[in-house]
Amino acid sequence: MITFWLAAGPALAAPAIEAPEPAATGVIAYPPSFFAEAAPDTAYDMVLRLPGFTFDKGAAVRGLAGSGGNVLIDGQPPVSKNDALDELLKRIPAASVARIELIRGGAPGIDMQGRSVIANVVRARTGGVRGAVMVSTHLIDDGRVLNSLRAESQAEWDGRRVEVSLVYGKGPDDSLGDGVRRRTGPGGAVISIADVEGEGGGLRAWTTGAFETPLAGGRLRLNGAYMRTPASGEITDRIRGGGREYEYYTNVRLQRELGGRFARPLGPATSLEAVAFQQWNDLETRADFEAPGVRRDFDLDKRVSESVGRLTIKRSFGPLWSVETGAEAALNRLESQTAFTLNGATVALPAADVEVEEARGEAFANVSWRPRADLSLEAGLRHEASSISAEGDVRLEKSLAFTKPRLAGAWTLGGGRQLRLRLEREVGQLNFDDFVASSSAVSTGAVLAGNPDLSPQQAWVSELAFDQRLAWGAVLVATYRHAELSDVIDRAPIFVGGRAVADAPGNIGAGRRDEFILNLTLPLERFGLTGAQWRGQVTVRDSEVRDPATGAAREISALRPVEWEMHLTHDLPAWRGNWGVDVLGGYRERSYRLSEVETRKQGVWVTVFGERKLAADLILRLEVQNLTERHVRRIREIHSGPRSVAPVAVTEVRDLDYGRAVFLRLRKTFS
Asked: In 133, 306, 550, 563, which residue has its Cα 20 to 30 A from 158's Cα atom?
C-alpha cells in the first residue's frame, strides 16, 4: 500500500472538558471547547477525537447510495468519490467548525446513509479568507527522501464560499522492502532460497475546488477534482547459488470528477434536494516478470465513466414523523483492453478486451418515527433495477432487480446507555475490476482472468449494538453483526471441455459472515495522567462458504479474521503541543484459487509522534514511523493441479521488512 504522510493529522487526543451529556434523542453535540486543549488543525482531527466513534471514509461503489462515509458536512454527504472524505475534512479549518454532532440511531432531517451512527460537521459562517500551506519530508531508512507540498484556501462572502486545494507529493509503498524468499517441495525439501530487494512508491498531483452560493431560494454547491496518481514498484529476487527473478510494475491513474447539489425548501415542512455527479477514471498498468527461461509481459488500458442523478424530497410531520422519498439513475461504462505475452508469444485471456455498459435505476422511501423522546424507529424500502450489456470477447445482456427493505431502531435507556438494532437486506455493487483480466505480477507473477457475467452479492444483515457513555468521558461500544449471504463473489473455476483449467471471479453460492466489534475510549485522568486518552478497537470476524474447487467449507477469501488498533495521546497545553503513540495491529487474509492458496500476513505498525505549536499560525510535527519494522509475509501453497485432486507441489514463503522512517511536517496557516 502506498502511503502519503503529507496530510497526516494529529492522532487522538484527550478532551479538554467533560464529555457532553448524551441527549435523549441520541444526538450529542461537541462544541469547539471540547477539543480546545488538543488544539486541532482541521475538522478531520476533531472527528478522530470523537469518543466511541471510528471514522470510515466510505466504499468505492457505483452510484451515490451507499458510497458515502460515516461523516456528513452540514448535514449532507459530499458529492464526491475520488476526492475522499478524509481529504475533504482535512480542508476544513478547525476554526470554521461550529460543532460536531454525533448522531446515534437517527435524527430529524438527517439521512443516516444506512448507518447506525454518523458524525455531522456543522460549519460556522465566519467570512473572510482562511488557508494553510504545508511542506513535509519523509526520510526512509533505505536513503530515499520524499518531499511533499500542499496548499489550500477558502474564502467566504455574502453567503458564498470558494475552496481550492493543491497537492503535489511523493509517498512510499510500505508493503515492499527487503527480505528472504524460500521455496520448498513436499516434505519441506528446500528448492531455492533467494534474497529479496523490493521498493515502490508513487506521486500525488491533485487539484480540487468547490463553490457554494445561494440560488433560487436554496443553496447550490459545485465541486470538481483533477487527480493524477502514478505509482511504480520493483522486486528483485537473487537466488542463492545463482539466478535472478525480477518483477516491475507501473500504474498511472487519472481521475476527474464533477459534482453538484442543489437544495431548497418547498414549504415550512418540505424540502427538495437534487444531486448530479460525473466521473472519468483511466488506468494504465504495465507489469513485467523475468526469470531464467521465462518472461511475462502484461498491459492493461482501462477507462471507466459514471453519470449519476438523484432527486430527494423530505417532509416532516411534526416532531414525531418524517418521510423521505426519491429516485436515483446511473449510467456506467467500462472499456478495457488487455495484452499478455509469455516468452514473446501472445496468450489469450478470458475477458481480455471488453466493453461493458450498465444502466441502473433505484426508487426509495424512508419513514422515521419517534414515539417517545428516548425511542426512534426507521423503516425504509429501496428497489433497484439494472441492465448490463457486454461486447467484445464476452457478449451478454441481462437484467437484474432487487428489493431492499430496512428496519432500524435506537432506544436510549438512560445513564448514558443506548441500544441499537438493525435488520436490512444489502445488495452489493458489482465491481468493474472483476469484469476484466488483471495482473498480480508484483505478488505472484500471475494473471487473473475476468468475468463480466456476475450477479451482485446479497445479504440479510442483522445488527445489535450497545453504547455506554460515562460522565467522566469513558465510552464503550459493542456491536454484533450477522449476515446470511447469497451469490457470494469469490474465485470460481473456469471449465473447458468439462475440465477446470483456470479461475475467475464468480458467484459461488450461499455463505455467512459474523462480526464482533469492540470500541473503547478511556480518558486517563483518573489514573494520574492528566490530558491523556487511550482509544482502541478490535474486530473479530468469522465466515463460511462452500469451496467451489473442493466442496469443503472454508472462510470467504480476503476477509481478515481479526483487525485491531489502539492509540495513546497526551496533550501538554503548557508546552503548546502533544505527543502520542499509534499502533496498527497486524492481520491475516487468505485467498483461494483453483490450484493455489495465498496467505498474506502483515505485522504490527507502531508510530511515535510529537507536535508543537511554534507560533499561533505555525505547527511542527515529527513522527518516527514503523518502530517495529513491520514485516509483510506472503505464503503461496501451489498445487500441481486443481486443489480438489492435486497435492501441494511447492510452498513459497516471502518475508519482506519495511524499515523505519522519519516524517517531518511544517504547517503554516493564514486568515
From this structure: 133
**pLDDT tens digits, one per residue of 604-638:** 999 999 999 999 899 999 999 999 999 999 999 99
Give CA separation, 380 vs 69, 74, 77, 141, 418, in Å. Answer: 19, 23, 19, 53, 22
* More confidently predicted of 93 and 518: 518
Phi, psi of 95 (to 5 degrees): -65, -15
Q: How far apart are CA 652 and CA 40, in angstroms?
A: 47
d(CA 315, CA 322): 6
Percentage of the chain lying above the pLDDT 70 cut: 92
d(C-alpha 652, C-alpha 131), whole Å: 51
* Cβ atoms of residues 631 and 603 within 8 Å: yes
Sign of CA dihedral 300, 590, 430, 509: positive
Which positions ≥6 away from 207 have C-beta within 8 Å? 165, 166, 167, 225, 226, 227
Contact 364, 323 (CB under 8 A): no
pLDDT for 61 equals 59
Do the beta carbons of residue 109 and residue 366 sit within 8 Å? no
DSSP string, 149-188: EEEEEEEEETTEEEEEEEEEEEEEBTT--EEEEEEE-GGG
Measured distance CA(29)–CA(107) in Å, rounded: 12
Per cent of the chain over pLDDT 90 is: 63
Pairing of the two strands 532-546 and 489-496: unpaired
Q: Exposed, middle or buried by CB within 10 Å (0-12, 13-18, 19+), for 399?
A: exposed
Burial grade of 211 (CB within 10 A; 0-12, 13-18, 19 or more): middle
> pLDDT tens digits for 234-293?
999 999 999 999 999 999 999 999 999 999 999 999 999 999 999 999 999 999 999 988
| Helix, strand, coil tally for the chain in percent (to 5) | 5, 65, 30
Q: Give which of 425, 397, 526 is closest to 472, Cα–Cα.
A: 526
**Residue found by looking up cell 510529537 in the block:** 610
Sheet holding 71-73, edge to edge: 27-30, 97-104, 117-123, 71-73
**Cβ atoms 332, 361 nearer than 8 A:** no
Backbone angles phi, psi at 208, to 5 degrees: -135, 155
Q: Is the dihedral of CA 310, 25, 54, 541 positive or negative?
A: negative
Burial of 432-467, coded b for 16+ CB within 10 Å and e otherwise, reads bbbbbbbbebbbbbebbbbbbebbbbbbebebebeb
> Residue 52 — φ and ψ, nearest 5°?
70, 20
Would you say 19 and 51 are in contact if contact means Cβ atoms under 8 Å apart?
yes
**pLDDT tens per residue, range 225-250:** 999 999 999 999 999 999 999 999 99
- C-alpha closest to that of 73 among 130, 120, 8, 115: 120
Q: Measured between alpha carbons, how far is 50 from 469 in angstroms, rounded to an integer?
A: 12
Strands, DSSP E only, in 415-561? 417-427, 438-440, 446-448, 458-469, 475-486, 489-496, 499-507, 511-523, 532-546, 553-554
Question: Closest Cα partner for 15 from 42, 43, 41, 46?
Answer: 46
**Whole-angstrom distance, CA of residue 224 vs CA of residue 77:** 15
